[in-house]
Amino acid sequence: MEGLTQHYPLTLDKILRRANRVFPDKEVVSVLPSGKRHRYTYADLYRRTVRLMNALRKLGVKPGDRVATFLWNDHRHLELYYAIPCVGAVTHTLNIRLFADQLTYIVNHAEDTLVFVDETLLKPLEEIAPGLKTVRRYVVVSESGRTPQTSLAPLGDYETLLAEADDTEDFPELDERTACGLCYTSGTTGHPKGALYSHRGIFVHTLMAGQVDMLGLSERDTLLPVVPMFHANAWSAPFIAPMVGAKLVYAGQNVSPEALVPLIREEGVTYAMGVPTIWQAMLAYLRQHGGGLGRVKRMVVGGSSAPLAMIQAYKRELDVEIIHAWGMTEMSPLGALNRGLAKMEDWPEEKQWAALARVGRPPACVELKLLDEMGEELPWDGTSAGELLVRGAAVVFSTTSHGLRWNRTTTAVEKFRGMSRSRFVPR
C-alpha cells in the first residue's frame, strides 16, 4: 500500500520561491570590482532570476544543456545558480584558477553551450576560446553594464539580456532527479572528473547541512561565504541562506584581510565560511591592527585542516568558534562537521581542544565506514585509518555504483593519510 503524502518534487525553485515569499526584504550584498557595494533583496533576486530564466530560453538554452559560469562571488552568480537549473539546464561552475589545458578539457567534456564570464576574467577565456568546441555564445558580466572590447564572439551583455527579457513567471514542472549542477574535481590520476548533481540531492543536502548541530544557520544570521562559488556548490551557502532567510554578503574578488575585516564589521556578519589560509591571514591582521570582528560568532573551516593554535586563538582572543568541516565535491559537499557534544563539557580543557581539532561526525543522510587492506570494516575508535567508503542522499554516483551502494573515495583516503590519524571521527 502506498502512503498518502502529497507529491512535492524537491526542486530548487522551491527554495527561491520560499525566499521571495517568506523573506522578501532580506538583503544580498555584493562587493563589486570597484569596491562599491551592491545591495538588493531576496524579492529582487526572485524578479531578476525570472527574467534571467526567460533570457536563457531566448538564447536557445534547452533542458539538459550545460551552461558555464566563469565568475566571482556576487549577486549575478547567485541569480545564475537558480535560473539555469530552474529552466531544466545544468549549471557548470568553472574554476577560475585552473590551468588553460584543464579548463579547455572540462568545457569540452561537459559540452558547455553558453559561458557567462566576468569582465575581469576575459583574458584567460580569450586564450582558450579557439579550442572550445561546443560553446556557441558568451555573456559578459560587468559592473559598468557596457560591453567591453574582446575577441570572444558572439558576445552579449548580462544586464542588457535581463532588461530585454520578459518578466512572465514560467517555472517548468521538473522531476526532482533532473540534473541541476556540474562541478569537476581532480582525482589522483587522469583528467578532472565531473560530479553531476540533481535537484533532489542539492535540496536534501541543504536540509541536512542546515541542521542545528551542523551548520545551524538561521534567519538571524548574516552569512559571508568566502569559499568560491565555483567550488563544490559554494558549500551550499547559495541554497541554505535563502532557505532560512539569512542575509548574504559576497566579498567579490578581494578577500584580503584589509577588505574583509571592514566588510564583516559594517555588514554585521555573524557567520563566515572559508579555508584556513583566509582566517590565518585575518588573525595576523587583527593582531597587528587591533579591533575585533564585530558580531561574528562562528566560522566554518574546510579545504584543509585548521591548526589547533588557530582554533584556540580565535576563541580566546575574539570569542569566535572555529568549526571544522570535511567533505568532497562528490558529496555535494558535506561529509562531516564538528560541533562540540554535550558530553565534552565535562572533559578536561586539553581533551576538549583535541576533539575540536578533528573533523567531526556526518550529518543525517550520510553514512561513512572505513575498511582495512583486507576489506574488513574498522571500528570508529578515533585512531583507525583505512579506505573510506561513503553513501548518502546527496552523494553522486560513482561510475560503477547504482542504487544504495557504497562509493569508494580514493581522493579522500589520500587526504586522510596526510593528516594525523585521530582527526577523522572523535569517540
Question: Secondary-structure blueprint of this entry?
Answer:
Layout: H1 13-22, E1 27-31, E2 37-41, H2 42-58, E3 66-70, H3 75-86, E4 90-93, H4 100-110, E5 112-118, H5 122-128, E6 137-141, E7 155-157, H6 158-164, E8 179-185, E9 193-198, H7 199-209, E10 222-225, H8 237-244, E11 247-250, H9 257-267, E12 271-274, H10 276-289, E13 298-301, H11 308-318, E14 321-327, E15 334-338, H12 349-356, E16 366-371, E17 387-392, E18 407-408, H13 410-417
Parallel strand pairs: 1-11, 3-4, 3-5, 4-8, 5-6, 6-7, 10-11, 10-12, 12-13, 13-14
Antiparallel strand pairs: 1-2, 8-9, 14-15, 16-17, 17-18
Helix pairs in contact: 1-2, 1-8, 2-3, 2-6, 4-5, 9-10
Structure description:
This protein has 427 residues and is α/β, with parallel strands linked by helices. It has a domain of 168 residues: Rossmann fold. Helices cover 32% and strands 21% of the residues. The strands form 3 sheets. It has an 8-stranded mixed β-sheet, with helices on both faces. α9 crosses α10. The longest helix is centred in the N-terminal third of the chain and has 17 residues. It is globular, with a radius of gyration of 22 Å. The C terminus is likely disordered.
Determine the number of helices (DSSP H or I, runs of at least 4 residues): 13
Fill in the CATH topology of the domain at 13-180: Rossmann fold
Query: What is the straight-line distance between the termini?
Result: 41 Å
| Helix content bin | 25-40%
Strand order, main sheet: write it out. Answer: 2-1-11-10-12-13-14-15
What is the radius of gyration computed over CA atoms, rounded to a whole number of angstroms? Answer: 22 Å
User: Tell me, what's the shape?
Assistant: globular
Strand content: 15-25%
Largest sheet, strands/sense/barrel: 8 strands, mixed
Tell me the number of strands: 18
Q: State the name of the first-level CATH class of the domain at 13-180.
A: Alpha Beta
CATH homologous superfamily grouping of the domain at 13-180: ANL, N-terminal domain
